Amino acid sequence: MDVLFHGVRGSTPTPLSNFLKFGGNTTCIEIRHPSFQLILDAGTGFQNVEILGDRPTFLLFSHFHYDHLQGLPFCPGLFDPTRSLLISSALVNKAELRETLGQAFKPSYFPIPLFEAFSHLKVVDFKDIKKSLRDLCEITSIPMNHPGGAAACVLKVDNIKICVFLDHEHGQRDSDGDKELYLAAENADLVVWDGMFIDSELPAKKGWGHSSIQQGLEFAKAVSCKKMLISHHSPSRTDKQLEKLALKHENGVVKLVKEGTKLNLD
């Protein structure tokens, strides 16, 4: 099973020369299992996803801020009507999700209506995704602390546990908003962490719905995860600045992830 990072930038894409080493596309993570393909969020990195035709493909939205959905209609695989895609979110039901996506991609915001252009897209409730995958894996969601809400993804498959905790404002271990995250991530094989900020930036960004790199280090130690990849890099953080932070904070468990990273968890 592979985990591919097609977009690791937060808030807005940064297609500039001094951002390209870590990558400028916004959030999109693919989990490629021999029996299914699971895509988490459709930021601009979604344009680089190959929708596989030989296994079921699912797209889950953690929430609907632009950096997590703006790449949705730009994936070349969507133009092939034989490659079906089930779309869902643990944050809302299927009617609300279809309405949200339809509103985001319609004239005058977008040249063509999304669901008329891609009629083979099917929007379903999160419980239907769980049902479709129940013989292959266990997938659950946890509410996260983010303006407007966001849904964490916890995937257990083949004795491997993956936790994706992007767009979460970290609190304390005993706070109601974090208890479930600590429990879910205990001994996880991979935690994907929101490292939008560094600690010195947190006071001015209170309520923005993001965590820090240093908080990730503390969390990884507390839950004894095997690997943590820090993502959702600030759109103002250059390659040089991220390299400096990596030199200071990376260790045998925690790394700052780069766009294009492919991690094998077999």
Secondary-structure element string:
EEEEEHHEHEEEHEHEHEE
Enumerate the spans where pLDDT stays under 50 for 5 or more consecutive residues: none
Q: Percent of residues in helical segments?
A: 10-25%
Q: How many distinct beta strands?
A: 13
Structural class computed from helices and strand pairing: alpha/beta
Biggest sheet descriptor: 7 strands, mixed
Which strands sit side by side, in order, in the main sheet? Answer: 6-5-4-3-2-1-13
What percentage of amino acids are in beta strands? 15-25%
Number of helices: 6
> If you average the pLDDT, what whole number results?
95
Alpha-carbon distance between the two ends? 6 Å
> What is the overall silhouette?
globular
**Taking Cα atoms only, what radius of gyration do you get, to the nearest Å?**
17 Å
What would a concise description of this structure say?
With 266 residues, this protein is of the alpha/beta class. It has helices at residues 94-104, 114-117, 126-133, 176-185, 213-223, 239-249; strands spanning 2-7, 28-33, 36-40, 57-60, 85-88, 121-123, 138-144, 150-157, 160-165, 190-194, 228-231, 254-256, 262-264.
